[in-house]
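Researcher: For the record, we're logging two predictions in this thread. I'll number them. Prediction 1 follows.
Model: Prediction 1, sequence and structure:
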Amino acid sequence: MPELPDDARCRILIADPDFGDPAQLIAGLDKLFAQFAREQRLVGWDIHSAHDGAALVLAWTPDAPLSGCSHDKLNGVVALHETRTGCRILTAPPLRIRVGGCWRCVDRAGLRAMADRSTPLIDHHLERVGDWRRHGLTTVGESWAAVLLATRQGAHA
């Protein structure tokens, strides 16, 4: 991804429990991006595994969102990988944290049970490569997920 500018668009994927062997997934996504380039939907792209395989970053230029149809096609490639490997990507729990030296996908309850403000978190909601470079790996306390750690008012009354 070093050749793509900070304003390039991106989509970050996480998987539960992991991507397995992502080589076929990356190859399938690369073919699809090549097709998008032939159709002049984008100019350049990169697919990058990050943080010891905990995330897969799809990035493209120019700075324009892909259409819903394009995302549907990407999701089709991802769904095929899910079927082949048994991992969940499209339906993975929404938070990717590092606990006990391992990356885990958790829901809000799992976050509250296993994490604190210093727990590493992959922010897969970012949409620009520059934001990913600066904030893709953060902590729960430094991210939007910090509010999820707060105990609900009246829960222990």
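Researcher: Logged. Prediction 2.
Model: Prediction 2, sequence and structure:
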Amino acid sequence: MQTIAILELEEGGLNVVVGGRDGATIRVVHSLRVPLTDLGRESLGSALRSIDRDVLQGVTGVHVVLGERRMQHFLATVPKLSVPDAIKFVVREALRVTGMQSPADTLVSTRLVRRLPHGRVVVGATAIARNVWEAMREAFTANDLQVLGLYSMEACHALAAASSDGGPVAVLECNGGRARFVLCDGQSPMQVRRFLIGGGGDGNATALAAQLTMELPRTFEWLRETNQPMPGTLVLGARVQVDDDMLPSLRGDDLKAVVRASSPVPVDAGQAPPSIGVAMLLARLCDGQSLPSLLDEPTFSLPVPMSRIAGLAAMFVAGLAGSWSAVVDGAGWMQVRDAREEVAVEARELSGRLSAEGLPQTAQGPSGDDELLVGALSMRRPISKLLADVSNCADTELHVEDMKFASTDRIVITGIVQGDSRQDALKAIARFSRQLADIPYVLAGGDEEITEVPRLKNCFKFRLGMKWRNG
């Protein structure tokens, strides 16, 4: 079993969770809590030294989940930019919320939440000042522990957020004497409220439920005051020990449902259950996935737009049609060639008979089969080259949807173009038409049609006609 160690840090306690994949099952083999007065270098170093080395035996490094009040989470709506420019956009916002002056002073992780129309995207980000982490990093280095990844506690809790309608979801989890209410959008935290749990809350389901019935309405009022969206579902973490008959009192008038998070990892007998965030992170790491780490350079990947996929599919279909046409034309040409060879053999036999009988031979001239062969050869078209040249003429704003052609019929190209303005879209069509006219083996013109696409701004559907050059 490949062993993975996750250390959950928060002022007041250090939770150590060690587990891995055992066949088809992911399980936790060690789960313990070490007292931690604060997150300073000396206190953390003392807590790390107190961990039994047998617990971390076989691990190559540790993953750190940090619960720090200075950790910032936000969503950024990014205009149509390249990925490097979008990252710079998000980093500038991270500098603003952390109060830092330079990107080198801030640790930032990003993940794509969703795409918006017109090339915009929503990016979720987590940020913290680098100097907050440096003292803790020195404590790990002094204890010969390699840190493989650094994540916020709230970002890990957000992995348990699942929405049936795509709306925001809240995750509530407890750790020691603190509770975290994490408002999530697409498994990315957008707002966090932390509050203390009274002494009677730990291990006392009734006291904890009573305190939550007071804190949750305050939290929803805070969301309204800050103009945040209201969650429809509240997901309770593994450490929120309240009885099932108390769940309706937590739902109140603001929530549609209160559900318990399903932990993806079982725990060995006698071990304390890890928080839902750590359990979700462990499952992802065991599956070869991860969460964007604050120690890595921030990045995310953009999915291919559906319009580009449709254009590529159309080109692929057109290529198949062209290949099939070439196969059909090639088969016809081979039949004509075989027929010509048979006629030539018969002509030589007749010529030999005429010579043997002393009869004059007929004048040599093109036979009907020869004329058929010449006609077939004159009908061969550079289909593959046409596909490549048409593709090269299309720019990023223009997508070819269909291309019809045959040996003698006209070539008809249809597609769609969408620009930042009507003028840009029309210029793109004109530019495409001029480039088609420059293709040497076709004649452009005729059968041209341009129409607007209903309900799509600055979008036109076009139909352009061409014909083959015969000489």
